[in-house]
Amino acid sequence: GKAIEIKTIDFLKHRMVWLALSFVIILAGAGGAIYHHVTEGKALNYGIEFAGGTSTTADFGKTYSIEEIEKEIVPYVSEITGDAAVQATTVDESTQIVLKTRTLDLEEREAMNAMLVEQFGVEESTIYSQSISSTISNEMRDSAIMAVIVACIFMLIYIRLRFKDIRFATSAIITLLHDVLIVLTSYALIRITVGNTLIAVVLTILGYSINDTIVVFDRIRENMHGMDIQDPKKLYTIANESLTQTLTRSINTSLTTIIVVTILFILGVPAIREFSLPMLVGMICGSYSSIFIATALWYEMKTRIKSKNVK
User: Fold this and answer.
1) 162-183, pLDDT tens digit by residue?
2) Residue 1 confidence (pLDDT)
3) Do residues 188 and 43 make contact, with C-beta atoms less than 8 angstroms apart?
4) Does residue 88 come out as left (phi exceeding 0), alpha (psi in the -120 to 50 range) or beta?
5) Half-sphere exposure of 209 (CA within 13 A, CB side)
6) For residue 100, how many C-alpha atoms fall within 13 Å in the half-sphere facing its CB?
7) Contact by Cβ (8 Å): 193, 50
8) Measured over all CA atoms, what is the biggest interatomic distance in the chain, rounded to whole angstroms?
9) 3-state SS of the chain?
10) CA atoms of 202 and 213, how far apart (whole Å)
């Protein structure tokens, strides 16, 4: 009949370690991007939508499902191109299949044609190739940047009005930018293909992370009982208590979502994996930042920036 007494965890004790760890990871991502830019000519592994490529259309003489194409045909194509980023689609009401790959030179196109003839019995006369333009890359890049900026601005305004303290809003937005940079780090280091799913991944992570952060901040505000407390020791205690009280909720929410995304990554086709892998990285990072980064930033701002300067 008694409530379980939970011991308060001192999350803020090693806050500088957590902040330094995040800085090192982001720095590693920047270093990886620079290295690949110097050695390969591109900082990220841009997909066909960004870098352009070659579209090969062939009549296979029978109907294939997308799953069969991914399992039976794509491995042969990847072996020729040396790149796992292959997009395959079928043409409605026909037995034609369109294979989109990185840009192929004449020798590689001839090797592709020979492989389709030998392995799948395709008539060479039905095979034709064409180059794919990368004209949408600038538009997609600008749209992604604009979407992140607009989302951050509106969340900054909302949190400022909701909590009546710009330090809550500022620390939340910095945390969101931290999450975006960690996701971009995964793209740079793991060489995940950057395609049209990038915008969806980034915006989903922003919404997921801010939701968890708001829950923690709301508990801090409740524990402060509406008072503008300035004593660093009291703020330290309140921050740790609030994080401890919301820890179970944060872990349960994160685990249930991470399990689903992990299953998508394990069982999904390559196109799904290119979406689920950065999503998985972002969700783990979002949970981590909500617990170890956001409140640490708020505490540092609260104790170093006086209220008269931020009202």
Assistant:
1) 888 888 889 999 999 999 999 9
2) 66
3) yes
4) beta
5) 36
6) 17
7) no
8) 80
9) CCCCCCCCCCHHHHHHHHHHHHHHHHHHHHHHHHHHHHHHCCCCCECHHHHCEEEEEEECCCCCCHHHHHHHHHHHHHHHHCCCCCEEEECCCCCEEEEEECCCCHHHHHHHHHHHHHHHCCCHHHCEEEEECCCHHHHHHHHHHHHHHHHHHHHHHHHHHHHCCHHHHHHHHHHHHHHHHHHHHHHHHHCCCECCCHHHHHHHHHHHHHHHHHHHHHHHHHHCCCCCCCCHHHHHHHHHHHHHHHHHHHHHHHHHHHHHHHHHHHHCCHHHHHHHHHHHHHHHHHHHHHHHCHHHHHHHHHHHCCHHHCC
10) 16
Q: Highest mean pLDDT range out of 65-79, 227-241, 282-296?
A: 282-296
Nearest C-alpha neighbor of 91 from the set 58, 122, 113: 58
| Distance, CA of 189 to CA of 140 (rounded, Å) | 22
Q: Take residue 112 and report the two structure tokens written for it.
A: 């592709």
User: CA-to-CA distance for 207 and 187, rounded, in angstroms?
Assistant: 20
pLDDT one-digit tens code per residue, 250-263:
888 889 989 999 99
Taking the alpha carbons at both ends of the chain, their separation in whole angstroms is 45
